[in-house]
Structure of ABC transporter ATP-binding protein:
Amino acid sequence: MSKHAISNEKESVGKIFKKFMHVIGINHRLCKWILPCNLGKNIIMAGLPYVGIVYGCDILNALVAQEAKSNIMSMVYQLLGITFVMTLLYHILDKAGNAMRDSIRYRIKADISGKAASLDYQELESQESMQLLTAALEGEKESGGIYWFSDKLGVLIGDVASIFYAFIVLVPILTKKQHLVGNGAMQILNSKWIIYLIFLLNLCSMFLFMWISKRGNKKQYEIYEESLDAIRKDDYFYREILSKYTTGKEIRLYALKDLLLRDMTEVWNEKCDIQDRKLDIQEKIKIRYLIVQALLLVVSYTVIGVRGVNGMITGAEVVKYVSALTALGGACQYMVDHFETVLLNMQYLHHYYEYLQLPNHKKTGDKSVADLKPQELVITFEDVSFQYPGSKKDSLKHINLTFHYGEKIALVGPNGAGKTTLILLLCRLYEPTQGRILLNGIDIREYDYEEYLAMFGVVFQDFKLFAMTVAENVAASEEYDEQKIEEVLEKAGIWDRVRKMEHGIHNPLYNVGIKGVEVSGGEAQKIAIARALYKNAPFIILDEPTSALDPMAEYEIYSGFDRLIQDRMAVYISHRMSSCRFCERIVVLKDGQVQEQGSHEELIDRDGIYAMMWNAQAQNYQ
Ligand SMILES: Nc1ncnc2c1ncn2[C@@H]1O[C@H](COP(=O)(O)OP(=O)(O)OP(=O)(O)O)[C@@H](O)[C@H]1O
């Protein structure tokens, strides 16, 4: 795993504090009431046992002393009243917190999705970003989400409150003037210093717990990082393959079930092993805690019990002080445990923060494209080379090309020649690794990025339509001009089909949640063409636009191409050589290089690659 994306290096206190403040900031931004709510409820909850301890002792003492019944009943009512109010408050805050939990979770998902949609395309595809995204999504789940962080922070503050309450309860035994009974060891046991010693033991146990917890959590976090690849693979198999009906055809026809299940089982075994290792660590932590806690309990009972036996305190006080000391020990232990959990939790959630902070490296300039006249637009590739991130070979090499407004250009070449890559660079979805792309003589990075993108209407080879209405798909917006939508659908040859849908252009596509229309591959391609036309961009790029169209539809597209494109510039990629003929200029790419360019006639006369490809295809039609 790349260290750039996720690292578990030892961090300074300052860095941890910074992370803590980031996560607190996230909490506050997502819901400003969640932390106060969790803090309040835990502070109340921590006090509840002490109310029982103190009142229980007073009531028992009063009973033994045979005090007036009304006095005893008054204490019972107070105990019930305070317990009722505290429990009620606790439940109100708990319910409010639960109600906030889901909305916070959805807001986190919205943040992550929003970031994924706005991140530089180049960044989005990088291995580091993908890992960080998985970590952000998984970390959010793994730690129980951001709500879990504030919940655990609340519990931690509750532990601190519990220690404070225990001190208040124990004050009398520390301050009461003592008449020491017995001699030698008994005097030591009866001295108040021995109580301080118990505090000290609790303090030492806290450090011991901290050490146990820290080691355990470190191991758990390492296991979690190790598991990220397995999680991604699991997502791929489970969400992308087996739960999608579109992959069902290949799985059946090529009997891929066993092969896929074999790979999936491997991933699941890996995940189960990870889970087992985690549970093992948690179990070991728990056992160590229990042993230390039991030892402390024995010491507390001995010290306080001896006082009771010697008549220095009443039986009820023995119960009260032992309960307070036990609660103090528990609170110390839990405080450390919860502190470590909050730190671990914060570590997970920090990936979410880091993902949201991923910078967009794309330089956007301040030059406006709107100032340029469409008919004067010229895009020039100046010695452009390009290598995909993580790849070792150049997909484009020293490309020098010019695209003029109004030109119809065909890009042809064998598979893997670099045609789609060239288009991705032209649209600035990727940046050249060498050379420059100029718009009217100025580097395209000098122009406003959004405005530059708006100049292109593209139908990619692997275009995507979305589960929304036809009109929204075409206009890529909630607001649209219905007349214009009809026009472009008509130009793309799909208007008749859309018109007959139950709700026409307002009909949803695909069955996701609501019942939509399942369109065929060719129909979808026509809608994608309509979307590119609706954009009214000066540059239209069609990457294999007719690959899914029937011969008639293909014929209609070509014969009406001029009407379709009008005077805009069109770059057209196709493996059907006959369909390139209508283009004024044909650029032939091979191995990432421009091998030849010219009109159809010129290239045939030249008898190069184009002529070879043309003749090879023409033979099929003879
Ligand atoms: N995301 C990517 N990461 C790494 N290499 C890539 C990526 N996309 C494409 N390539 C490589 O870049 C080269 C050019 O690919 P490109 O898709 O541009 O070819 P093409 O001419 O459009 O091919 P086809 O006719 O098959 O669509 C290929 O060798 C391909 O393996």
Notes: The chain is about 65% helix and 10% strand. The first strand starts at residue 378 and ends at 386.
